[in-house]
Amino acid sequence: MALDPNSRRQFLAFLAGSPLLAAAGLDHDWLARLAGNGRSDALLHAADQVATAGTHPVLAAQPPLIARAADALDVFDFEPVARQNIPVAHWGYLMTGTDDDATIAANRAGFDRWVLRPRRLIDVSKVDTQLSIFGSRYASPIVVNPLGSQKGFHKDGEVATAKAAKARDHLMVLSTVATTSIEDTIAARGGPVWFQLYHQSDWSITKQMVKRAERAGAPAIAFTVDLLGGSNRVTMVREARRDTRDCIKCHLGGPPLPGVSGRVDDRDNRRKPNLVGYEKLPPQLEKGTPTWEFVDRLKQSTGMKVLLKGIVTEEDAALAVEHGVDGLFVSNHGGRAENSRRATIVSLPEVVKGTAGKIPVICDGGFRRGTDVFKALALGATAAGIGRPYIWGLGAFGQEGVEAVLAIMHKEFELTMKQSGVTALSQIAMRHIAPA
Ligand SMILES: Cc1cc2nc3c(=O)[nH]c(=O)nc-3n(C[C@H](O)[C@H](O)[C@H](O)COP(=O)(O)O)c2cc1C
Fold first, then answer.
1. Per-residue pLDDT of the chain (436 residues; tens, 9 = 90+)
2. 173 and 39 in one domain?
3. In this structure, are 180 and 286 located in the same domain?
4. Is 323 annotated as catalytic?
5. Which residues neighbour 97 within 8 Å (Cβ) at sequence distance 6 or greater?
6. Ligand 1 within 6 A of 345 CB?
């Protein structure tokens, strides 16, 4: 039995002061370490385990930290190791949602709304898990989503991620605010990488960024539209305040301010490799925040495929198709945009409906298990994106950790396909799941 996020929190509060803690083989230090921001996935996972195991001392025993990537049994095994390695302010940047972080929990809980309907006695000895998108093929439908500032989690940053994506043959998308350039990332991936676009206030700079991504060999850009009004990242600011290091050494703007988006400070971002080196052309300043007119301009400015990242409604999905958009990411930025408390897996069916099947739809937000990926594909997604899990792998063991995370999630997914009696992604359909 999995608990909903509210009951999980109540359960944890109860657990912290309960003799059950000892009986279940857990200790206060461990819970406190995991609890740091009070809302970590590992903590919720632990609560699930204890809730499932009741007071059984063996099943609920505290898992020791893994010493090698190869020892991991699921992606959650990387989280506490990464947490130990990553400076607390950077950990806050990774794990934060908005307001009370409820949308992070909602993303996870959304998967419990669906259960599997496995089929028996079908030959599943040969299974094709390949994703085909815009004429390219990848070994898996699990996409390595754009995630900024990866050298803040491991010295090798996006290069390690790209090498892991190459080793496991996954589609990777690079963030505008990456700590590695699009050129170096494509070189490390040994093949095309998509570019995620944050627009700039000056269209002449945005245009140059788009041209540069195209020149570097990116076949697609994903324009992120879910932070245009800003976002309130409380956990990030709280964790930054606990960091005793001198942030100014690296962040020219100092520690983050409350009530702003993930950006620590624009002066920091202006040093990021994908945001430097552009010609000083006469500025063409945007008049406000982007609208569909901007999307049209973007489409006209490039031969690359243009996707929108952060669409969660049928209306916007239909508008995207009308405006010639080539694909969508159903995303709430991993619970870091507005605190909607609505899981992306809940938004997915209406977005798929809005596209009328005309363009590919990638869904991200809270994907941690192969069964999550399977459910999204059954609900009409073309692929599923992951964010924090591969960064847990990166922070814990560098490239090897990212590879292990991809391998574990892919293996779980393949197993789910086999148990469901399907041998190709195209066969995964609504009939393979049911409302819980
Ligand atoms: C630390 C962090 C940084 C992120 N940076 C970006 C970014 O630069 N651009 C973007 O479009 N999305 C960004 N995202 C959102 C991810 O692409 C993705 O939507 C999200 O992480 C998926 O949820 P998950 O972390 O629960 O898997 C970021 C997410 C995190 C956690």
1. 344 444 544 544 444 444 444 434 344 443 444 444 444 555 445 444 444 434 445 556 677 999 999 999 999 999 999 999 999 999 999 999 999 999 999 999 999 999 999 999 999 999 999 999 999 999 999 999 999 999 999 999 999 999 999 999 999 999 999 999 999 999 999 999 999 999 999 999 999 999 999 999 999 999 999 999 999 999 999 999 999 988 877 887 777 766 555 555 667 777 899 999 999 999 999 999 999 999 999 999 999 999 999 999 999 999 999 999 999 999 999 999 999 999 999 999 999 999 999 999 999 999 999 999 999 999 999 999 999 999 999 999 999 999 999 999 999 999 999 999 999 999 999 999 999 9
2. no
3. yes
4. no
5. 39, 103, 104, 233, 235, 334, 335, 336, 339
6. no
Give yes or no for residue 347 CB within 6 A of ligand 1: no
Query: Which runs of consecutive H residues, i.e. helices, occur in 221-356?
Result: 234-242, 266-269, 292-300, 314-322, 344-355
91 lines ligand 1 (CB under 6 A): no
Q: Is 136 helix (H, G, I), strand (E, B) or coil?
A: strand
Does residue 182 share a domain with residue 41?
Answer: no
Answer yes or no: do 35 and 131 share one domain: no
Residue 26 in any domain: the answer is yes
Listed in sequence order, the residues at least 6 apart from 289 whose beta carbon sits closer than 8 Å to its beta carbon are: 228, 229
Domain contains 80: no
Nearest atom in ligand 1 to the alpha carbon of residue 94 is 1
Please state the atom number of ligand 1 nearest to the C-alpha of residue 368.
27
Q: Enumerate residues 6+ apart whose C-beta is below 8 A from 136.
A: 171, 192, 219
Any domain includes 264? no
Q: What is the pTM of this model?
A: 0.88
364 lines ligand 1 (CB under 6 A): yes
141 in ligand 1 pocket by Cβ < 6 Å? Answer: no
Of 241, 8, 29, the residue nearest 106 (C-alpha): 8
Ligand 1: nearest atom to the Cα of 108: 26
Residue with tokens 């001198």: 246
Residue of 147, 328, 338 to mutate, ligand 1, most atoms within 8 A of C-beta: 147
Count of structural domains, the chain: 2
CA distance 176 to 212: 12
Which structural domain range is residue 376 located in?
113-117+127-229+276-435
Residue minimizing CA distance to atom 7 of ligand 1: 147
Answer whether residue 376 is part of any domain. yes
* Residue 54 sits in the same domain as residue 137: no
